[in-house]
Design brief:
Elements: H1 3-9, H2 15-45, H3 63-87, H4 90-116, H5 118-130, H6 139-151, H7 210-213, H8 222-232, H9 234-267
Helix pairs in contact: 2-3, 2-9, 3-4, 4-9
Membrane topology: Multi-pass membrane protein
Protein name: Tetraspanin
Organism: Tetraodon nigroviridis (Spotted green pufferfish)
Length: 269
């Protein structure tokens, strides 16, 4: 049966849906490839590829894994969506829509559970932070901690004394480090007149009394400051999550619409 006859019967694949879905997934795929490339590059730079035994060491958090996992999932789904739309392959389109729907369901479940068990999650967050103060040992985690402390004007999980858990900053007599009883420079109150960051500004600061500390470093914990930031920016944060959810639903609807069109055309063969 000719293509012309398909048009006459009204069963045809919508070019708008097909190429819009293709373009949507091209951006999704490229973004995933970028995340994956950054993660693999950082992974290689840290020497993981030359020491395969370290791959099984999952005892602590490593920000690189976040890039690799998120990038890998986005890359696979974007690739499946692109090829599925371009080739009108119903298997790949169903794969794309089902897994995107699964991710949406997991995000929705996580959001509900986070609201219901917020106190438990807060305790776990505290436990996680206290067990991952690997400042100096992991450059990626160090940069993440510095960013958080600088951005939220905080120091430690609950306060500066949390840095006693770190081997370089603890106040024990056995600690030979020059940073003993200090804090990272990201805890320091910034002087607007200084153009160059003073990386030694936190030295010996925990020897000082509380009032004296407040002149030099942030004394509020990052957990409390993060909670305050969430409350102050609740609409913005909720808008981001709603926007991501709508994009996912939109992608699923496009894929399912294209599957229906392809099936309708095949039914007329």
């Amino acid at each position: 049966m000719s293509r012309k006859h398909h048009h006459f019967r009204g069963a045809e694949v919508s070019c708008c849906v097909k190429y819009f879905l293709f373009g949507f997934n091209i951006l999704f795929w490229l973004l995933g490839a970028a995340f994956l490339a950054i993660g693999l590059w950082a992974w290689k730079e840290k020497g993981v590829l030359s020491n395969l035994s370290s791959i099984t060491d999952l005892g602590g958090f490593d920000p690189v894994w976040l890039f690799i996992v998120v990038g890998g999932v986005m890359f696979i789904l974007g690739f499946a969506g692109c090829i599925g739309a371009l080739r009108e392959n119903t298997f790949l389109l169903k794969f794309f829509s089902v897994f995107l729907g699964l991710i949406f369901f997991l995000e929705l479940t996580a959001g509900i559970l986070a609201f219901v068990f917020k106190d438990w999650i807060k305790d776990q967050l505290n436990f996680f932070i206290n067990n991952n103060v690997k400042y100096r040992d992991d450059i990626d985690l160090q940069n993440l901690i510095d960013f958080a402390q600088d951005y939220w004007s905080c120091c430690g999980a609950h306060g500066p004394d949390d840095w006693n858990l770190n081997i370089y900053f603890n106040c024990t007599d056995l600690n030979p480090s020059r940073e003993r009883c200090g804090v990272p420079f990201s805890c320091c109150v910034k002087d607007p007149a200084e153009d160059v960051i003073n990386t030694q500004c936190g030295y010996d600061v925990r020897h000082k009394v509380e009032l004296e500390r407040q002149k030099h470093i942030y004394t509020k914990g990052c957990v409390g400051q993060f909670e305050k930031w969430l409350q102050d920016n609740l609409i913005f944060v909720a808008g981001i999550f709603v926007g991501i959810a709508l994009l996912q639903i939109f992608g699923i609807c496009l894929a399912q619409n294209l599957v229906s069109d392809v099936k309708a055309v095949k039914a007329n063969w």
